[in-house]
């Protein structure tokens, strides 16, 4: 199972189809992780096979930081769910 397929399965447990259609959720996930430099998105590297020590690489995103794994998706999901404020909403000023 690919990273995107696994992400879809997990996110589908928490995001109802009435909130975001499954096909739209799949597109958001695919777009979120399409810019990662490796197809696995978060590959593992074996450091010591005998001791079964592995390392999860979280730096293959756009900014080379672990935050890309969560924030790429969050950015796309936020832009999908953004609704402009109602026209009759009062405007507040900071003094």
Describe this structure in words.
With about 100 residues, this protein is mainly alpha-helical. About 40% of the residues lie in helices and about 10% in strands. It is built from three helices and two strands, in the order H-H-E-E-H. It has helices at about 5-15, 20-35, 65-80; strands spanning about 45-50, 55. The chain has a two-stranded antiparallel ribbon. Strand 1 (about 45-50) and strand 2 form a beta hairpin. Helix 1 packs across helix 2 (about 20-35). The longest helix has 15 residues, at about 65-80. It is elongated and about 65 Å long. The N and C termini lie far apart (about 55 Å).
What keyword list fits this structure?
single chain; 95 residues; mainly alpha; two-stranded antiparallel sheet; 3 helices; 41% helix
Q: What order do the helices and strands come in, and which of them pair?
A:
Blueprint (H helix, E strand, L loop, with lengths): L2 H12 L7 H12 L10 E5 L4 E4 L10 H15 L14
Antiparallel strand pairs: 1-2
Helix pairs in contact: 1-2, 2-3
In short:
The chain is mostly helical and 95 residues long. Helix 1 crosses helix 2. Helix content is 41%, strand content 9%.
**What is the ordering of alpha helices and beta strands?**
HHEEH
Strand order of the largest sheet: 1-2
Q: How many strand segments?
A: 2
* Large-scale geometry: elongated
Low-pLDDT regions: none
Percent of residues in helical segments?
A: 40-55%
Mean pLDDT: 87
Radius of gyration: 18 Å
Terminal CA distance: 54 Å
User: Would you tell me the structural class of the helices and strands?
Assistant: mainly alpha
Total helices: the number is: 3
What portion of residues belong to β-strands? 5-15%
Can you summarize the main beta sheet?
Answer: 2 strands, antiparallel
